[in-house]
Amino acid sequence: MAISVPSSTIEHPRLAVRSIPALPKANAVRALAERLEDRDFHEGAAWGLARAAVDPSDVRRRLDRPSPIRVPGAVLWTVEADVWTPAIVPYIVNYRESVGRIFPADDTAESSPPYPPIRRPKGDPTGKPILQIEVEDRGHLVQAVEGSVNYLVEHNPLSDSIAEKGVMFPITLVSTSVALNASGDTVEIPATADGSSRAAGALDVLGLAVEDVLDRYRKDPRALSGLIGKVRSVFNRPLDEVSERELGQANALILPARIIIGFEPDATGAADFAKAVHNYVQLIHGDLPPVPWPETAKVDAKADSVVSELERADLLTPNKALYLEGMLSAGDAQKLKLPATADERGLLIVSTLSSPSHSVHAAIRAGVVQPSERKNVTKWVKSEIGAELALRGVRAGLTPKELSSARDVLANAYTNPAIWEKGLKPSGKTPTELLGEALEELRAGTAGAARAELGALGGFWLVVHRVLREARFFKEENFTDGRVPSTILSALMDSEWGLQVLAQALKDGREGEEEILRVDVEGNRIPNAQGGFLQADHAWLRGAVVPPEMKDPEDEEQSSSPPPPEKVLLDRRKALEGAVAAVEQRHEELRQVLGGDGDPLVDKRGLPTAAAEDLRERLDAVERALVVYGALWAARTDATDDPAEKDEDEEDSE
What we know:
alpha/beta, 8-stranded mixed sheet, two-stranded antiparallel ribbon, 10 strands
């Protein structure tokens, strides 16, 4: 029963928006737990969900009529019911907080956090609808949940609204089994796959300590009953004796929930339970309302999902998966004979993700949630994921804005033809050794592995230190350079001065220097007027080391005969590829414009309907034409065994 007061007395009183029943009887809780065990939940998970239910008898009846939710690769079966706030926790691996995660692979952090980030949940190996998470010990779990609650309360504040009106839209609840590796114990608790901000806000209004939620209220029905009784006492007192805080707690005590109680892979069998839940959350927060994740959170979630799929397909060993995720320190990586530096780790990652292997491509595609399963995974998507994983080795030293910019630039740089799909592996050579071999290759006119490796490794540090950045107009130098980062990297690899710059960047980056120093064509550092050395920057790199080509029309000679049509077609196809890459880049830049809440402004305001429709129609026309071109090429090459018919990669090498 809601507490109310005549409007003539108080204009806008705070009210308890719903009645609160007493804690259900133990027999009702036990009966629901047994029914959940019949539905494939193990005992601890079943009791965790049963204790959370406000009305176990109603949930038991609803189990006979679950509702399906389709997600890519599976169907999730759910029931809707009210749950006690003190019996649940926010999602333990919440990607909304990912911008603040510091990985063991990151040597740039001023101090190492007491615990590493928690890895992405795994599905129960027997197919039960339970997420499995591993933490080091109980302190690790408490820190993760406390950090999640504090972050969500600060960055997505809902506490005042919940205290005033309660939670109106259901959270999504999933049974979660947390293994404490140090003790071998397991904590079974329902967690919010969706609705973590609502759950955190409700816990904040109740003023509950995370340790009590994970311990007292989870284990002791009497403690939960005492809390419920205390909150319910507001219904037995006059309104003028009830504080706003008490009424807010009454509104926060119960949450509407959609509880996941079953899981079925679809005909493809492509998703386990963890993947199905990930797809569900990604569809909601990756691209759809209510509140999209920040861009870093979206890419982080995709990256972890892709690594998980590569491991599931036996394309990565468990240790290699940990390495790609950034979960191994430099020392741990060396013990496993894996490259320990951030730049080498980045090269190994991009070599893995850019592999032309069909199985690798299929695993990456399975790890990326897309609006249509028929759409292919583009080179840009792969390189963006590779850049995100690589930057986990240095991101503690970057602001969120710098991280977003570095991700875009590094992703473009990694698509350089000398690096992408070339299977490059770190050689372990020093910057001086790589430079010597790269200069020999350049003078011999050969496109060798040393130049490519130096480009990838040195280019990594040029990006991290914002020396290699996006194209722009340089006001001070009065020139415009529209070349994308990949093109700049090619120019650096194709000049002696550029190779010297890459070697210096690699040296300074590995030594932890705050800035990359300028060098001349001989590799000597350039002194400044204060007795130090000049620092490299974006304008110097593009304007002096590898300046844009300035063509003089009077010096251009007209060819006596036009080039063959095949050559013109190849050149224009490459120009089209560059234009598409530029479109993808411009779209990412559009999404980097953030609103006051830190989320992409375009997700809130959209674009003018006419402009969006015009762009879509123009892109659709190009897409339809490309489908026809691809089919024509396939039909022509299938119809002949002539070795003169070259594939795309062979043409590119000419």
